[in-house]
Amino acid sequence: MRLPNWLAQHLAALRALLVFTVLLGLAYPLALVAVGRVPGLADKSAGSLITADGTTVGSALIGQSFTDADGNPVPRYFQSRPSAAGDGYDPTSTAASNLGPESVVDTVAIDPEESTQSLLTQVCARSAAIGQLDGVDGRRPYCTADGVGAVLAVFRSDGLTGPITRVVSVNQTAPATPFLASYEGVAVELAQPGQDYLAAGGLVTPIRGDAPAEPAVPADAVTASGSGLDPHISPAYARIQVDRVARERGAEPAEVSRLVAAHTSGRALGFLGAPTVDVLRLNLALDREFPAG
Amino acid sequence: MSTTTAGVIFVLSLAAALAAVHRPFGDYLYRVVSGTRHLKIERGLYRLVGVNPATEQSWGVYARAVLAFSAVSVLFLYAFLRLQHHLWLSLGLDPVVTHEAWNTAVSFVTNTNWQWYSGESTLGHLVQMSGLAVQNFVSAAVGIAVAVALVRGFARSRTGELGNFWVDLTRITVRVLLPISVLGAVVLMLGGVVQNLSAGTEITTLTGGSQTITGGPVASQEVIKELGTNGGGFYNVNSAHPFENPTTWTNWLEIFLLLVIPFSLPRVFGRMVGQVRQGYAIVAVMAILALASITLTNVFELSGHGTVPQAVGAAMEGKEARFDVSNSATFAAATTLTSTGAVNSFHDSYTSLGGMMPMVNMMFGEVAPGGVGAGLYGLLVLALITVFVAGLMVGRTPEYVGKKIGAREIQFASLYFLVTPVLVLIGTAAAFATGNNSTALNVGPHGLSEVLYAFTSASNNNGSAFAGITVSTPWWNTALGLCMLLGRFLPIIFVLALAGSLARQHPVPASEGTLPTHRPLFVGMVVGVTVILVALTFLPALALGPLAEGL
C-alpha cells in the first residue's frame, strides 16, 4: 500500500525528529556530561564549588550577599553589588531590574506595601547608604540629600507652556523637607501618598543639583547587575571599602589592600572586559588571614 | 588602556577573526551543501528517516517538507512541555500550561527562543536538553537549508529542482553544527560553564544565609544557542549568568559563535553562483551595517545619556562588572544583528538611544549578518529590491547574477519584505487597543518601547526583550506565538517560491546594460535601500518610544 504523499512527508518528518532527538537531545548532551567528569573539567562542569574547612561555601562564579538576616551589610565583609535576583543573589530566581533610564518617579501609594521605587531613587538610596557605611561622600547628580531621586512635577497653566502654577517634589513625602525650597519662584510642595502627579499633567523635571560629576561611590556599587549573581565588583568599589573592613577586623588597611590586589584581575589579554575584584574569594581570604574577633 | 580603546580592540579582534575564517569556513560549508557523497552515518540516518537522498525536490515539495518537519516539531515540543512532570529530570516542576507551551514550542521551532518563563524555575533538565536544544540545532539547520535552496535557484537554470530538504537538514546538522558544538561546549566548560544533571546544591554562605547553586546540561545548550543564532537561555538571565558566560573570553567566544555562520554564508553564495565576488559584495553590505550598528550602540552606551545613567555615572544598570559597558553593548548589537536574542546585559535598562539600536537592528530584518540562513536569504531579497529600484531608475530590466528579476520575483520579494512590518505594527497597535500594554513594567515612552520591542523581536524571530514587560498572559503568549510563526514561515514560503521561479529561468548573459552587482556602487545602494526602507517603515513607531524618551 502506498501512503498519500502528505502523510508520507509527515511520517518522514516525525521519524527525522525522533532520530535527531536521540542524537542531539540525548547522545550529545549526555556524552558531554561524561566528558565533564574528566579531571581538569570535573570541578568546573560541577559549578566551580569552593570549600573552606571541609564545607562547601559557594561557587567561585556566583556572587553572594554579605548581609545579615535583616538584609543589612555585615561590615567585616566586602559588599557585593545590588542584586535583583530574588531577595538578592538567589540562583533559583535570577533577574535584572529592567527599569529604564528615565525611571525617575516613585509610586507613593497610601498603603506603603504598594509603593514602588523608581530606579533613580534606588540608585540615590544605595549611594547614600554606602556613603554612610564607608565614610565617603554619597552624593550623586539628580539625588536629594535624603537619598531619593531629585525630581519635580512642574504644572504650567496651559499644560506644556505658560506660567508655573504648582511644583511638587514627587519622590519626597512628609516629614521630609523639599530638596528645593522653590523652583522659578514657586514654592515646592511635598508629594501626597496616592497622588499621580504625572497623570494630573505635571511635567517630569529631574534636577541635577550640585553633586560632583564623578561621585565617590562608583557606578557598579549603585546598580544591579544583569544576572543578579555578579561575583565581581570594580576595584574602585573595593577601594572605598578597605578602611571599613580593616577597622572591623583590627587589621592594617595596607594589609587588606594587599589582599584586594591579590584578588583583582585586570583585563584578560589586556583588552577583554573590565578589571574586577572577586568578592567571595577575597572575603574567604580575609576570614582566613584576619578572622574577626 | 582606556575603556574605549579596550572596547574598540574587542570589536576589531572579532572582525579580524571573522574575516580570517570567512573563506575557509565558507568553503567548507559550500562543500557540505554541494557535495555528492554521503557519510556512512548520514546514510544510516536517511534509512531511519525513510527518505531517498538521491531524489531532488521542487520548491513546493521542499517547502512542504520544511513545514511538515516544523509542524511535527511544534506538536512534539508542545506535548513534551505539557507532560514534563511525568519525565525523568523534571526536578519536581509542574507541567507547562497550554498557552505557555504553545508559545515556547513555536518559539524554539521558529529559531526565535522568545522566553516568557524563567528556565531555572519552569523547565526540567530533560525538556531543555532533549526538547529545546534539539530545536536549537534543527531550526538553525532549516534556516541554512532554505538559504541554500534559494542560492540553488540563482545557480541553476531550466530546472524545477532545488535540492533535497532531508539531505540539507542532515548534512548541516551532522557535518557543521554538531562537531562545532562538541568542540565549543568543551571549550566553554574550560571557562566554567556547567554541564551536569544536578538538581542544585544547597550551600551556606559566609554570612550564614542559604543559596542553591543550580545545575544543568548548560554547556551543550549554550554553544548551539549561539552557533545556531537561537538565543534561548538555560537560565532566566541568559548569557549574563555566570554559569552560561563566566568570563570575558567566553563572552568573546559566544559573540564569535553567533556571528560565524551568518558571516560565512555569503561565501557559499559566491561559490555556488560561480562568482565569489558576488559573495564579497553581500558580505560587505553585512559588514558595513554591522560595524555601523555596533559603533553606534557603543557610542550611545558609553556616553550614558539619560537621567539615571547620569546619576550613576555610567549605563551600568543591568550589566555585569566583568563585561562592563562596552563589551555588553557589543553583545547587544551582535545578538540583534543576528536572530540570536541571547543577552549578556539587560536592554531594558540601556540608555534610550542605546536601547533603540537593538530594535533598529531587528527592524532591518536581521540581515547584517542575520540569523543562520535567514540573514543570507533576507539580504538577497533586499539585493533584488535594490536591482529593481536601480532598474526603474535607468529603465532597464533588472538582473541579478544572471537571472531576470521580473514581476513574479519582485512580488515574492515585496511580500517577503512586508511580512514583519505588518506583524510588528499591527501587533503593537493591537496590544494598545486591547489594553494589554498595561503589563509593561516601565511607564510613558519606555512602556511603549517594551511593547514595540516584544513584537519586533517575535516577528523577526530574535527572542531578546525589553524584559521588564510581563508576557506570560494568555493574550501575550498567543499573539507573540502567532507573530513568531508567521514571521518565520511566510518569508520561508516566499523565499522558496522565489527560488523555484529563479531556477526555472534561462540564464541571461551579462551585457553592456547589466548593473554590476559586485562593485562598491551596488554595495552602497543595497545599504541605502535597506536603511531607507526600514526608516520609512518604522520611524513613526520609534519616534513614540525610544526617540521620544532619548531626545
TrEMBL record, chain A:
<keyword id="KW-0812">Transmembrane</keyword>
<dbReference type="Pfam" id="PF02669">
    <property type="entry name" value="KdpC"/>
</dbReference>
<keyword id="KW-1003">Cell membrane</keyword>
<comment type="function">
    <text>Part of the high-affinity ATP-driven potassium transport (or Kdp) system, which catalyzes the hydrolysis of ATP coupled with the electrogenic transport of potassium into the cytoplasm. This subunit acts as a catalytic chaperone that increases the ATP-binding affinity of the ATP-hydrolyzing subunit KdpB by the formation of a transient KdpB/KdpC/ATP ternary complex.</text>
</comment>
<comment type="subunit">
    <text>The system is composed of three essential subunits: KdpA, KdpB and KdpC.</text>
</comment>
<keyword id="KW-1133">Transmembrane helix</keyword>
<feature type="transmembrane region" description="Helical">
    <location>
        <begin position="12"/>
        <end position="35"/>
    </location>
</feature>
<keyword id="KW-0633">Potassium transport</keyword>
<keyword id="KW-0067">ATP-binding</keyword>
<dbReference type="InterPro" id="IPR003820">
    <property type="entry name" value="KdpC"/>
</dbReference>
<keyword id="KW-0472">Membrane</keyword>
<dbReference type="GO" id="GO:0008556">
    <property type="term" value="F:P-type potassium transmembrane transporter activity"/>
</dbReference>
<protein>
    <recommendedName>
        <fullName>Potassium-transporting ATPase KdpC subunit</fullName>
    </recommendedName>
</protein>
<keyword id="KW-0547">Nucleotide-binding</keyword>
<keyword id="KW-0813">Transport</keyword>
<keyword id="KW-0630">Potassium</keyword>
<keyword id="KW-0406">Ion transport</keyword>
<dbReference type="GO" id="GO:0005524">
    <property type="term" value="F:ATP binding"/>
</dbReference>
<comment type="similarity">
    <text>Belongs to the KdpC family.</text>
</comment>
<dbReference type="GO" id="GO:0005886">
    <property type="term" value="C:plasma membrane"/>
</dbReference>
UniProtKB/TrEMBL annotation, chain B:
<dbReference type="Pfam" id="PF03814">
    <property type="entry name" value="KdpA"/>
</dbReference>
<comment type="similarity">
    <text>Belongs to the KdpA family.</text>
</comment>
<keyword id="KW-0406">Ion transport</keyword>
<feature type="transmembrane region" description="Helical">
    <location>
        <begin position="249"/>
        <end position="268"/>
    </location>
</feature>
<keyword id="KW-1133">Transmembrane helix</keyword>
<feature type="transmembrane region" description="Helical">
    <location>
        <begin position="374"/>
        <end position="394"/>
    </location>
</feature>
<keyword id="KW-0472">Membrane</keyword>
<dbReference type="InterPro" id="IPR004623">
    <property type="entry name" value="KdpA"/>
</dbReference>
<dbReference type="GO" id="GO:0005886">
    <property type="term" value="C:plasma membrane"/>
</dbReference>
<feature type="transmembrane region" description="Helical">
    <location>
        <begin position="176"/>
        <end position="194"/>
    </location>
</feature>
<dbReference type="GO" id="GO:0008556">
    <property type="term" value="F:P-type potassium transmembrane transporter activity"/>
</dbReference>
<feature type="transmembrane region" description="Helical">
    <location>
        <begin position="280"/>
        <end position="300"/>
    </location>
</feature>
<dbReference type="GO" id="GO:0030955">
    <property type="term" value="F:potassium ion binding"/>
</dbReference>
<feature type="transmembrane region" description="Helical">
    <location>
        <begin position="61"/>
        <end position="81"/>
    </location>
</feature>
<keyword id="KW-0813">Transport</keyword>
<keyword id="KW-1003">Cell membrane</keyword>
<keyword id="KW-0633">Potassium transport</keyword>
<comment type="function">
    <text>Part of the high-affinity ATP-driven potassium transport (or Kdp) system, which catalyzes the hydrolysis of ATP coupled with the electrogenic transport of potassium into the cytoplasm. This subunit binds the extracellular potassium ions and delivers the ions to the membrane domain of KdpB through an intramembrane tunnel.</text>
</comment>
<feature type="transmembrane region" description="Helical">
    <location>
        <begin position="137"/>
        <end position="155"/>
    </location>
</feature>
<feature type="transmembrane region" description="Helical">
    <location>
        <begin position="415"/>
        <end position="433"/>
    </location>
</feature>
<protein>
    <recommendedName>
        <fullName>Potassium-transporting ATPase potassium-binding subunit</fullName>
    </recommendedName>
</protein>
<comment type="subunit">
    <text>The system is composed of three essential subunits: KdpA, KdpB and KdpC.</text>
</comment>
